[in-house]
Amino acid sequence: MISATKYTFTSSNIDLAPASSGVYVLYDGDTITYYGSSETSVRARLRRHHNGNEGQCTKSATHFKWETTQRPLGREAELLHEYEETYGALPRCNDRDV
After folding, report:
1. Residue 37: exposed, middle, or buried by beta-carbon count in 10 A (0-12, 13-18, 19+)?
2. Which domain holds residue 12?
């Protein structure tokens, strides 16, 4: 779980995210729909989702959180594993069939 402030998924709030490596989570209301990571800029990745460059599933997010880390891919894998262990499936937009 990412323990951080939950922001509305707006362009101005995305500007608050760091331009450094980390992980992030996207929500539809209170439901987690996607965990992602960036080895360079969380802000840039969130902007791509917001603009629809990563698909319609994540573009429709309503909120987001982030966490900086020097090992974003490993941390993303941990978050996905934790979610799958708890709910028996991946978040909706992490499911490769979506």
Report:
1. buried
2. 7-89
Answer for the pair 75, 38: CB distance below 8 angstroms, yes or no. no
pLDDT in tens, 27-86: 999 999 999 999 999 999 999 999 999 999 999 999 999 999 999 999 999 999 999 999
Please report where in the chains the tokens 């791509």 appear, as a residue.
48
- Sequence-ordered list of residues with C-beta below 8 angstroms from that of 86, at least 6 positions apart, any chain: none
| Nearest in space to 45 (alpha carbons), one of 85, 9, 95 | 9
Regarding beta strands 31-38 and 7-8, do their DSSP bridges make them parallel or antiparallel, or are they unpaired? unpaired
Residue 68: phi, psi to the nearest 5? -85, 145
| pTM, two decimal places | 0.94
* 76 found inside a domain: yes
